[in-house]
């Protein structure tokens, strides 16, 4: 069964298709159809070690797709660094019906301090794992992809004396379930930060259009009123002036 699953599963790193050199595109396919897609730029901040570790392009990828659980695993620099993203689809009851959604439920980052690209003069170098706790991120309605251009920070706690590690994600587009077209994301669900920034960008334009419309309407009303009053015959109030009329 495992051999059959391996034969049926295809995992691809399509980072060469991204115009951003810091962003990768990952695709998991089963039974010749896409079941998970992820596109993002990622960097790890090792606060106590003063090390910034980017996710290298051309990383090795594995993945698992399920009805309610999916997983994406990315390794680079000869597996000195491994990022695992766990996704969960579930539902909750509302006043009308049950609504399904998916979320990023867990993040694990394994790093080897024996690797000298980012770690220098480390005491007792070995592998450590940093994990998230009670994570509920990238929450998205079922059947949609998650999109967020803004940078997001996910805090992880390391097994290395409980040191803090931060995962920085940006330019994110992810869909771990319900992909209906091969290599194509479904309709996007934008993150609140992007929606707020978009509103801040368009609000001045909308206010400007409304102000311009008010000015035009005011000028039109003034012009019509002035034209009507100019055409009216002015009747003198002093009766002595009636003899000059006619």
Automatic annotation (TrEMBL):
InterPro entries, alphabetized: Ig-like_dom (IPR007110), Lamp2-like_luminal (IPR048528), Lysosome-assoc_membr_glycop (IPR002000)
Keywords: Cell membrane, Cell projection, Cytoplasmic vesicle, Endosome, Glycoprotein, Membrane, Signal, Synapse, Transmembrane, Transmembrane helix
Stretches of the chain forming a coiled coil according to its record: none
GO biological process: establishment of protein localization to organelle
Annotated ranges, domain Ig-like: 42-166
Localization per Swiss-Prot or TrEMBL: Cell projection, Dendrite; Cell projection, Growth cone membrane; Cytoplasmic vesicle, Secretory vesicle, Synaptic vesicle membrane; Early endosome membrane
GO CC list: dendrite; early endosome membrane; endoplasmic reticulum-Golgi intermediate compartment membrane; growth cone membrane; late endosome membrane; lysosomal membrane; recycling endosome; synaptic vesicle membrane
Transmembrane annotation, as ranges: 203-224
Pfam families: Lamp2-like_luminal (PF01299)
Function: Plays a role in short-term synaptic plasticity in a subset of GABAergic neurons in the brain.
Similarity annotation: Belongs to the LAMP family.
UniProt name for this protein: Lysosome-associated membrane glycoprotein 5
Originating organism: Aegotheles bennettii
């Amino acid at each position: 069964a495992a051999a059959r699953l391996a034969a049926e599963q295809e995992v691809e790193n399509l980072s060469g298709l991204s115009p951003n050199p810091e962003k990768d595109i990952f695709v998991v396919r089963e039974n010749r159809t896409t079941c998970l897609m992820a596109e993002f730029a990622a960097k790890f901040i090792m606060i106590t070690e003063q090390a910034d570790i980017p996710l290298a392009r051309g990383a090795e990828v594995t993945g698992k797709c399920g009805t309610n659980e999916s997983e994406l695993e990315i390794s680079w620099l000869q597996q000195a660094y491994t990022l695992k993203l766990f996704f969960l689809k579930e539902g909750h009851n509302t006043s009308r019906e049950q609504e399904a959604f998916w979320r990023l439920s867990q993040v694990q980052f394994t790093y080897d301090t024996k690797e000298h690209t980012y770690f220098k003069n480390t005491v007792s170098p070995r592998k450590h794992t940093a994990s998230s706790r009670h994570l509920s991120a990238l929450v998205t309605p079922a059947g949609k992809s998650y999109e967020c251009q803004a940078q997001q920070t996910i805090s992880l706690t390391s097994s290395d004396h409980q040191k803090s590690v931060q995962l920085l994600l940006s330019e994110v587009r992810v869909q771990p379930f319900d992909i209906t077209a091969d290599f194509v994301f479904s309709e996007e669900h934008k993150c609140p930060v992007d929606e707020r920034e978009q509103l801040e960008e368009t609000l001045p334009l909308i206010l400007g259009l409304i102000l311009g419309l008010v000015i035009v309407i005011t000028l039109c009303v003034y012009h019509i009123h002035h034209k009507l009053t100019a055409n009216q015959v002015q009747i003198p109030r002093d009766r002595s002036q009636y003899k000059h009329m006619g």
